[in-house]
Amino acid sequence: MLGFRPAGFVPTLQDYRSYEAARNDFLRSARGRAALLAGGIIAWLAQGVVNENDIYDGPTEHALQKGDRALCVWEEGGSRAFWDDQLTLEEMDLICGSYEVATDGLQQTAIRSWWPRSGSWKSCGLNCGFWSKDAEDWFLKRLHKILHMEQVSVMTGQEWHVKLKFRRAHSLSNQNDCLSKEYLKTQYTLPI
User: Fold this and answer.
1) HSE of 65 in the Cβ direction (CA atoms, 13 Å)?
2) What is the pLDDT of residues 91-109, one digit of tens each?
3) Phi and psi angles of residue 53, each rounded to the nearest 5 degrees, phi first
């Protein structure tokens, strides 16, 4: 996390540059490897800062300690466990450029970020299991707007959810479901 900001915080290009410097310093540490393993927007932000070959250098000592920096996956049947590095929520928030911003004085705050936080990214239409051309186009457009300060703000999870919602994709999916049901009704006797 990049720290606390007062209500009405309007980020500047200097704020973005400071975020990039903090993010890149973190990614150059041994924990940067875990960012590449995370996938999605986290891995994309780490790309170019973390050497891809660092993936082969793990897991690090962090993965061998119990806690939120370690990921344990059990082999089917439960006879063997595989350990690797995993980012903490705070580390992911730093990578995404998150601030704690007051919403009404000092009583309530909201997390606002330059880039969608992991949960927002995982539930958006751009997350298709790999970094797609659509994700790349969106990323480059957002980065251009940030670097030129074209009506750019840091956003809450809810704002990211709305911003990343692809209405056309949702409409297409709904239409596909309806057509599929109609087709199945003509082919099979199903309680649809």
Assistant:
1) 6
2) 999 999 999 999 975 589 9
3) -70, -15
Q: Alpha-carbon distance 138 to 89, whole Å? A: 24
Measure the CA–CA gap between 189 and 192, rounded to whole angstroms. 9
pLDDT cut 70: percent of the chain above it? 87
The pTM of this model reads 0.80
46 touches 32 (CB < 8 A)? yes
Distance separating alpha carbons of residues 137 and 11, to the nearest angstrom: 23
What type of residue sits at position 127?
N
Cβ partners under 8 Å of residue 135, min gap 6: 44, 126, 127, 128
